[in-house]
Amino acid sequence: MSKLTNAGTFALGHRTVNRMGYGAMQLAGPGVFGPPKNPAAALAVLREAVASGVNHIDTSDFYGPHVTNRLIREALHPYPDDLVIVTKVGATRGADASWNPAQSPAELTSAVHDNLRNLGVDALDVVNLRVMGNVHAPSEGSIEPQFTALAELQQRGLIRQLGLSNVTATQLAQARGIAEVVCVQNHYNLAHREDEALIAELGRAGIAYVPFFPLGGFTPLQSDTLSDVARRLGFTAMQVALAWLLARAPNILLIPGTSSLAHLRENLAAATIRLDGDALAELATIGAAS
Q: Which neighbouring-strand residues pair with 257?
């Protein structure tokens, strides 16, 4: 039995996945643009993740663009029956590596077909609508046209389940009035905790919350308190940060990303960590004012 089951499982709509998953974004080149420097290493990371028990992979066809999905297909196709691949649409990449909104129904439809083709599937397990907002923070505004377009593609059988990324509670409510939402992917970690109430709301509804940048993203988490707790417990700071998220709420699913086998193993090992009450109390002071 995989050690990842120590962290438990949670329903991702009508699928059940281990709470420790994997995010493929870092498999692309620098700045999530272009091919990886070492394609063989990228394939090895994907294969070891799945061999270690990961059955939830997060990706997007605008990573690269097209790079991570093609790597996933090369490494893992035909896919294991229990593997859930979650992708997202709503952006494109410019020739200068810029991230540009692509939110019209036509653009979203095109993106879904790109994901289908590059992943090599007839239907996508889960598609998140990535609302561009303020890049890494949600902002209010109707998402009805976008989510309706995806719901129509779901009705056509091209998408099995729908989710949201970078959204507010109001946008979540609007989307749930159009179609079932199985997950929300927002910015959240030990130091960035604006979504506390939303996590609780989603938990009551049985909806998964998937924090992006669980380790700080492009600016890794730095905290003396985190370092002190990790040193006392004998783990790395990043392992403790992941363990805190798993302890934070049962509906949190993790997708830490890496292009390194060593870091992959370190991240997955966090599924076995149990933080005691003292550690949780100390860690709770980080970002408490958020």
A: 23
**Tokens describing residue 270:** 């966090």
* Distance between CA atoms of residues 46 and 52, nearest Å: 10
pLDDT of residue 290: 45
Cα within 13 Å of Cα(265), Cβ side: 4
Q: Which residue has the higher pLDDT, 219 or 212?
A: 212
Q: Are 20 and 54 in contact (CB under 8 A)?
A: yes
pLDDT mean over 108-122:
98
Mean pLDDT of the chain: 95
Tokens at 238, concatenated: 């990043």
The 3-state DSSP composition of the chain as helix, strand, coil percent (nearest 5) reads: 40, 20, 40
Cα separation, 216 vs 34, in Å, equals 23
**What residues are labeled active site?**
63
- Contact between 106 and 162 under an 8 Å Cβ cutoff? The reply is no
Distance between CA atoms of residues 170 and 142, nearest Å: 9
Rounded CA-CA distance 245/190 in Å is: 8
User: Which residues share a beta bridge with 100?
Assistant: 92
Q: What is the pLDDT of residue 239?
A: 97
Residues 165 and 132: beta-carbon distance below 8 Å? no
Please give the radius of gyration of the chain, using alpha carbons only, rounded to the nearest integer.
18
One-letter amino acid at 132 equals: M
